UniProtKB/TrEMBL annotation:
SUPFAM superfamilies per record: PLP-dependent transferases
Keywords: Aminotransferase, Pyridoxal phosphate, Transferase
Species in which this protein is naturally found: Lapidilactobacillus gannanensis
UniProt-listed InterPro entries: Aminotransferase_I/II_large, AspAT/PAT-like, NHTrfase_class1_PyrdxlP-BS, PyrdxlP-dep_Trfase, PyrdxlP-dep_Trfase_major, PyrdxlP-dep_Trfase_small
The keyword Transferase appears for this protein: yes
Protein name per Swiss-Prot or TrEMBL: Aminotransferase
CDD domains, per the entry: AAT_like
Residues annotated as domain Aminotransferase class I/classII large: 33-382
Amino acid sequence: MTKDLAKLMKKELLDVEPSSILQFDKDVSQIPNIIKLTLGEPDFNTPDHVKQAGQASIAANHSHYTQSPGLPSLRVAAAQFLASKYGTDYDPATQVLTTVGATGAIYSALTAILNPGDEVIIPIPIFPLYIPIVKLNGATPIFVDTSQDGFKLTPEKLANTLATHRDKVKAIVFNYPTNPTGVTYRQSELEAFVAILKQYDIFVISDEIYSELTYGEPHVSLGKLLPEQTLLINGVSKSHAMTGWRIGFIAGPAAVISKINMVHQFTVTAATTMSQEAALEAMQHGLDDGQAMKQEYLQRRDYLVAELNRLGMATAVPAGAFYAFAKIPARFGSDSFAFCRKLAQEAQVALIPGAAFPAGEGYVRISYAASMAKLTEACQRLDKFLAVN
């Protein structure tokens, strides 16, 4: 007799769905001659000196476990990186944890701090990863729609949300520069948030993985402005084109980091040794490796935003990351999945539907982590598509 054991699994999984971003990318990948501007992954290669450090680690048989929080030297380098770039002050021995990408930091942090019944404030649109992790821990996301405020959380909405949910809120998630909109926050805006957040005993999960990719004012970290409440997440995936190496960091108060490390330890033991040694090279000798990439992204951003606006797809200029969040022309309606499927099938251009992000319906996300040649061809195809539809 066949047993249906699936019905015995964790009940919170019933309220979680697989990533629609990855599924849509998989679906359109089958279309011949498709140009994909879908995933948030740098199209650059990892810098040669970083690859050589990884290769040297393998050659030296550094294939054993590191300490669970990561190589001490890497934690020192990460703390120095954050200090030199953003003015933070973390003790690498007790306040920095090496994780399996920023994703590992997000999972371990939320799992460590959440109890069933807790609530987590999440400004939207936002990369949806945080939401299923909150739900899997029995907590409830409290969404704050920013679509009418230039896709930025306002101090007023933050204050009102905290006042309404004060008894159950355990944390708030910030992601800036933001995926999918590319908006970021100035220091004055962050200071206004800090003045409010200091009034509450809650965690601030600050995912700043795109911190090296800002195109206007320098990035300001909540890890500097509110260190006693902030769990600062960063890593080398975007800054050094190292997505596949899977190395991230989380920094915060020592007593909290020690508990987050327990979740990390029980989940993955430790991040991959040779990847850590490659990241060490990136932190020690490649602090500004991301700057050349950033200049390329800036040129692509300016070209893409101008083209999208010319074609009638209203797009604000992204202040960071490598995404443009464009409005679907009104004649197509607001069904972003229908628009993107039609575009992929008829014009062989793949974009991510805005509905893949909460409060993103009616928009599309376009990744300009692609060559200028691909962007130019994609815009030409998009122009023809819009002209006949």
